[in-house]
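REQUEST ID: PR-0412
SUBMITTED BY: lab tech R.K.
PRIORITY: routine
TASK: structure prediction, single protein chain
INPUT:
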Amino acid sequence: MPFNKLHVPQHLPVETCHAINDLLHDSLVETCGVNPEDYFCLVARYAPDDMILHPTFLGNRDPAATIVIEIALLDGRSDAQKEALFKDVRRRLRDIDFNPENSIIFLIENRPIDWSFSGAGSVKSVLGL
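STATUS: complete
OUTPUT:
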């Protein structure tokens, strides 16, 4: 049950944002066993002066072109699945001609009680988990 949030420069085309989310979703399905119907994303655009990051910490990147991929999902994935996800997403970014060095990816894990999609309550109570 991931929810993706893409933090992107203002100038990044909408089509590129959609392509990034599509490849991210496909990678989550393939590497982490995510349900293909769990497809949620919010694109948050930032002004050039709003991205403050070290350009060479654990890699070289262009702060003006860097995207941050934030993924909130249910816990339970192994370290191997997470490593596979990071590697696969970066390969897919390269495939759409986006420099994967200009990406930062992080996961926020939680439990079914932490999600609600309707007035029926948490995912835990709705699904009887």
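NOTES: Strands lie at 3-9, 41-46, 67-74, 103-110, 116-118, 121-122.
REVIEWED BY: pending
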